[in-house]
Amino acid sequence: MSQPAFPGRLTPDDPDLSERQKRILSALVRLHGAMARPVSSELLTQHGDIAVSSASVRTELSELEGLGLLERSHSSAGRVPTARGWGLYVRTLLTPAALDRSMVAELERTLSHSARDVRQLLDEASRVLSTLTHQLGLALALSLSGEVLTGLDLSPLGERRALLVLNLGAETLRMLVLELGSELDANQLEEVAAVLRERLVGRTLSEVRDRLDHDPELVRKSAVRIVSRAAALSWEQPVETPLYRSGAMHIAEQPEFSRSLGPILRAVEAGSPLDRLLVMGVEGQVAARVSLDEDAALAACSLVAYPLPGRIRGAVGVLGPMRMNYALAFAVVDAVGARVAEILES
After folding, report:
1. Which residue has better confidence, 236 or 59?
2. CA 139, CA 142: separation in Å to the nearest integer?
3. To which CATH superfamily is domain 101-143+240-345 assigned?
């Protein structure tokens, strides 16, 4: 399963590259991104701003290939980054771009016009994402009613307030701020959390919501009853939308997709697994999934997504080739996601 890559957040499997190897990998990524074709050692020496000989570049390229970061179709061909190489680039070498004022003004103007309607707002978000990144823009609000609760935590936030964190697998959290009818201390909340785990873990969120209202075991003890009622009240009816997508022409223009466009567009049209991948991650943080191996048609694609924080479970993002301009994509997706979340919360 493809894993999210966050700039500056390494994984235990990431190799420790030398500074020269980092410069060469960064230059190769830049040239391959611009040309959409394999990059030779000679091209790197001429246009990569690398002050070493071609022989030294070839040696380093062989090392990077041995680490699984680069690949080539045959021994005399140039090299391209692998999915692992792109992921390492995002984690270690990527600096998100600074958006110019015209971009910020455009997204603000576009999104503000749709502030009163969630569906229109997300539709417009997909359009502005596509316009600013030249990738396929995506946005949706997704009901998690069928997701299974795997764990929960309950902690105080002050007088008569608590935070209920619902775990829905390794990467998905849902957080509810509870307004309590009576003050409960940390020890009481931990006791309540133990009861809730016993009664709710292993059930779908739809069943969890129903049990908070009707399970007799959750009303016998006053502290549990206080938390259960607060959770039921704060748990609004889910907003669900289709997967909004804009800018299919940008996918069609990518040379690497010239022979595989049909399957990619069919996968986008189907929605799954893109809808689930968009919302899986850390709320309020943009991340990239390089090579979406959940669907063979999307294996050559990357998804840069921003799961929305707040009361509506949703996300915005862009889909494109693995060689997309990640610096721009991260900056735009982060800006659009943050603004959409701000509008939804207001």
Report:
1. 59
2. 10
3. GAF domain (3.30.450.40)
